[in-house]
Automatic annotation (TrEMBL):
This is Glycoside hydrolase family 65 protein. It comes from Enterococcus plantarum. The keyword Transferase applies. Residues 425-823 form the Glycoside hydrolase family 65 central catalytic domain. Keywords: Glycosyltransferase, Hydrolase, Transferase. Belongs to the glycosyl hydrolase 65 family. Residues 131-373 form the Glycoside hydrolase family 65 N-terminal domain. GO terms for molecular function: carbohydrate binding; glycosyltransferase activity; hydrolase activity, hydrolyzing O-glycosyl compounds. One of its GO terms (biological process) is carbohydrate metabolic process. Substrate binds at residues 463-464, 723-724.
Amino acid sequence: MNFLFLTLTQNSLHIQEKKQDNQLSEYTIPFSDFKFPKTAEILATQIKEQFPSVTGAVFNDIAPEFYSQHTQIAALNVGIENIIKHFSELLNLPILTVSELDTAKDLAAAFKEKSEYLTWNLDYFGYTPGKEEYSVESLLTIGNGFMGLRGTIPEMTLSKEHYPATYIAGLYNEEKSEVAGQIVENEDFVNTPNNQFIRIKVDGTDEWLTLEKASLHYLHRNLDLKTGLFSSHMILEDSHQHQVKITAQKIVNMAKKNNYSIKYSIKPLNFSKNITVKTTTDGSVYNFNVERYRNLTAKHFHITQLLAEKNNSMIEVQTNQSKINVQQMATITGDFFDADAIKNSIGEERIEQEITFYAEQHKTYTFEKQVQVKASIAEENWQTTLLPAASFDSEFNESKQAWETLWKKSDVQITGDLMSQKLLRIHTYHLLVSASPFNNNDLDVSVTARGLHGEAYRGHIFWDEIFILPFYILHFPETAKQLLMYRYNRLGKAKENACESNYAGAMYPWQSGLDGSEDTQKLHLNPLNGEWGEDHSILQRHVSLAIAYNVWMYWNNSRDDRFIKEYGAEMLVEIANFWRSATTFDDTTNRYYIDKVMGPDEFHEAYPDSPESGLKNNAYTNLMVVWLFEELETILSLLDTQEQAELFNKTGVTSENLKEMVAIRKRLSIEINEDGIIAQYEGYFDLKEIDWGKAKEKYGNIYRMDRILKAEGQSPDDYKVSKQADTLMLFYNLNKEKIDEILEELDYDLPADYLEKNLLYYLNRTSHGSTLSRIVHAQLAEQVAFHDLSWKLYQEALYSDYQDIQGGTTAEGIHTGVMAATIYVTLTTYAGIDIKKNHLTIQPNLPKNWTEMAFNIDHKGIHYNLFITNNTVHVCPSQDTTVIVQNQPHQLRADKVTMINY
């Protein structure tokens, strides 16, 4: 095997290509000024061009003189570990240190072991306070579906530099704020008391060791995706030159929804003195994660009780408006003190517990904090008396086993692409943190657009569920059902929302929180000009279609007829009835139309110069309505005569209503031009074109062209510019064959290549202002055999949160929608599985650098283990069944692996 030996000199990167101990070639890349990470990116590009076939590398140690010459960088943030991390990711190769090379008995095995580590671990070296730090914390979040803790170290407090937070699923509160001279009400996802805080002070100083005041010599944070273990290693020095090594470990127990644990170790490096350790239960926290929300009311709870005795403490708070109670109970233990040595202090908003002890140089002292979190929204759990946690190690072992169970069902394994493997595991991990089979099935919650990781979008539930639920449908059907029950439990509120807007049926809100009320803000801040403007996104009524689609997807994949009879059919009927009532017949065109809506695009809210908001005949909305009306017939056929009668009596839907739905689905209007382009909405073709080259040259980042245009005094309503896939979303949801059937039933005749034409037309007019945009376009590009385009967009979507490509949005929480969608597209587009048909259908289409894929899915009550190569499919089902591979049926035996050539 060939590998590279890399040496960074003062002004060049020296490269030796080796095979074992033999040198094959030598190459030097000069540079004048080392800027990190920009110079690393330039160097990596040249390495890939010069050495395309190497399988690993070794990076030599960096001499101290390197930092003396390049004073703009420091070893804290640009040490050898961080340089290796960046080059490894840029080159998509495992890279060893010299010491790892020296101890390796087998070089190939060492590279394999390093690759395995890299795909299961998230490492960050150094510290850059502010938005970049906030993003790191989002990506290092730990959780278990019930609660999430951002990836901060114990010494961090709420500030602009870093932001510890403890989130509980479904915990919302509504407050009033004055905005642009108006009083507005916003429902927010609440940051609850911080029980993670720990800091130390060395005797003879008045300084608590903090990142703000002490000298930070080293900081390494690691998240083990396989086990959910967060670890940090830090060396701090106070102004009296006391150096301390601090190691912290933190887990949220995946097996027990209420428990999280911290293990905190202190090692004096150059002194022996008394040290004081302080841990705080902080009830003074408030919402601060999203910069543009900071002028709004941020304190969402008041303290109802503070208690501390010996090594135990308790805080109980209640949200101000929603009246939800939250309780946190903590116990501290350690190998250097007993309970009587603890000094407890209770203030108005916090509890402080201090221990002073004598610490000897080079000796390690360990402190543990076990925290149990309860919330009254989880009623049964709130009433349960919890057993105290025994120790960090016991909690970790229990949690690790639970994570192992989850990974067995959900891990997607890829051979040949280190970074795609790593990123898919990062995405899977964060979905399981956001909602888990271990802790969500008894909760009345859904997955927020930003997980349990941050406060963007106020922690609300959007149509992102259409991207998120398929992950659970494929791997954890019971959890998918629980997430759907969140919507069913708010069906009554959706009916109220429809009635208030003079519609029938159920109109689900664009933004949903605690009780299913419409929680979309009325004003939106444009950060480019600092101005507040009206927000019309409430008109994205297609959220109801996303819910209907997920109900159908869950039933179609699980065949859970009981769910349909008890809950699903009622939701579908009410949603369909809403769309029936939103439809109007036009005598002039002899077709029906739907107006006063917005599509998924979001940049377009109204027609140019129109005093009213809303658009007419959005193609995505209309064609999904036709799909819903068609599928409703199938769903209703599952019910017997009495069950149908009870359903129609409960919903008020009549046979005349159903007949009208049949008429609508045959005559609903969309606009199509002579080239076969389906207009995003009626009148779209009349809009002006954007000069994209000029916009990119002027602004660079043009993702949010709506904000750019508004800051220039213009309106995106005037232009053919889209935030994300709109019309094209149809092909993400449905097979092209199904859309062809719908268009034929509507009596529209399109050219054979209309999908390719529509993809290119809209791709050239889309700014990708949503991270979801790229993954939808990637799937469509693969459908029409634009393989390179598909791969490019897929990779951009995979990296979108990890590299924070939108310039700071990851700081406000990860994007659960795009994380779930990348996994779904990996399975449906590249592995080629189709779960929408009666039999599992597989048409593999592996990217050129992937040699193998392995994964598990559930389909119609059968569990499948699949292994796919470039010419074979290996399938092991849990029952006798038939699968379709490349359009050919194959009979399978239960628990037997069948190899199918294709």
